[in-house]
Amino acid sequence: MKQLYKKYVGVLAISIGLSSCVDYMDTTDFQVEKPATIAEQEVLNAMGTLGSYLDTIANPNFKLGGAIDMNQYSSRGLMYRLINSNFSEVTAGYGMKHGAIVLANGNMNFDRVNSTIEAASAAGTSIYGHTLVWHANQNAAYLNGLLAPLVVESPPFKNELDLSALMSGSMEGWQSKGEVKHMENAGMGEGTSGVILSAGSGTDPESVQLTTPPIPVVPGKPYEVIVYVKSDTPGQGGITFEGLADNEPSIDWMNTGTDSTSFGTGISWQEIRFTVDDVVGDSFQMHFNFGYEPNVNYSIDISNLYVYDPAGEPAINNLVVNGDFENGNGWGGWGNGSSRGATPDGMGFGGSGKAFFVTNPSITGGFWEVQTSYEFAEPLKNGEEYKLSFWVRGDAEGIIRPELQSPNYSSNGFGQVGVTKEWKQVTLSTVATADDRIRFVISYGEFAGTVYLDNVVLSSANLSGGSTTLVYKTDQEKRAIVEGEFERWIAGMLTTTKDYIKAWDVVNEPMDDANPFELKTGVGNSNLAADIFYWQDYLGKDYAVKAIELAEQYGNPDDLLFINDYNLEYSLDKCQGIIDYVNYIESKGVTVDGIGTQMHINIDSDKDKIVSMFKMLAATGKLVKVSELDVRVNTTTPTAEVLELQREMYKYVAEMYVQHVPAAQRYGITVWGVTDSPDNANWLPGEKQGLWDINLNRKPAYAGFAEGLEGM
Fold it and tell me: Which residues fall in a coiled-coil region (predicted)?
């Protein structure tokens, strides 16, 4: 094969030489040599495919890979033929990552993966799995949504269960068995109370029990019951009754589709919701039984413990019509060149729906100099207390001031409200002290920037119901949620692909650039891109250990598992950092089969460092994979000289890989920017880093890379 290649190189040299030495001839009989560019291209076109320059007998396990766009590849067009004729393995640029597979609701769609597997199988081309665990290209909106605070809206109806004693810290009127106590700050929301029930060593369900006072009802009416419960370890609870036709019913407690006499509990608050429709008298009682499992501590939230008639009269009347701004209308306002209105969909609280915004260009001399105003249908009642709640965030931090105002500008203020960059709920109250409090006003003069408001509710404090509780998840809950998603994702991908894919980037880009001996982290960074989610911030340094354990559990026993990173040839400290991390991973009892080095380099990259990197990686004894090779030319209009430098660098990388990585450790080389076309799996459109140009003509880089491969 070497002789074959040298033949083409020789032809190229002769062609270039002849084209530069054309003598003058009689115009009646002459021939013109082909221009050098055409002659050069013909030489490149006459070369064999890349795979033909490999000694497959001496390197039977070496994988020559190319990056693909999965849609383009599975359509089986021109790029499909080009890839399969030159490469023995393909790697998806994006299509096998979390963000490409996991839908907004958490479901996974593997249709494109399966189509790609079918296309590769038809060609006899293997697929390299890229990537199981990464911080980028994630469906971060879905993952962060699971970790976001739980927003619990109580029913806007009268609560038939008298909670007054519990709300004041007393257990009067409530009965209990076993260790049952009222406890402050044990409820779902910040500063809310709960009832703690602690199971002992037995397993009698009724040995730990809380019993409600009699709950008055109208005979024959159905009533809905809502309970929020959690436990410090997995547990079990149940509810029995007095006053029903069936006091020990089987119920679908959590809308799972299955009736049972008990329900499971865990470290996160969960809603128990069911209907009681067989009361035999004018009241009934509930027994909360938590003695099923020994040594488990349970919490029942007090504020959202509800029994109500869903067909009854609403117990709340929001005086602010369209307080959720979903009709697209905002409020009027004035001052300091400010602007206001309803946002587009997706900018409301929780990332859905609309919100109201006010943009104030600068802080003013008085807080009242920038205001919005909402007019009530009629004046508020003099002497009555009014509750105000809303969600608020800003693009900066500052202060706003809500108040109830009269036409003469006298007012009852709710106080200052601190605005942060994160959504938060504000709950305030004030008493109307005049007969003509006719409008709701918010002042923004102390805030420079944009304030967003959503779900504004103003109601009489005499009305119950309709409250909102914001439930923040604990670090323990967040870790458990992330662990569950981590396993669900890896299990889903591997069980789908294991019959065809036998090698994986299990963890991609773990090491930090600024601190190359430490893992990357998103802690302290409030400006993360929308697709960024750092698994390691929740699972810790052993996240790669867990990933390998799961890959071994759900994949094939002999799958090859790699840790992959970039800039290892640029920063030798980072190269050492990933080697150290691999050693740490293996100290935990799992095996890393290989290390991938991406090598997104350019024509000026430090060749000495490239050699040092290969030596360092080879010294680990692990498989070494050049996982994402491309060579940038640093210009969008490269000259022939620049393209020659690109050719030399592709050749150099292949030669140094062969020279410094023993044959038994050579997993392979994958070319990332196969062509200059942005339609291929090209992450750097316009950078001219490929082996083929935008028209799929071979470039000098093709020849250089082929020559480097011949060294095997």
Answer: none
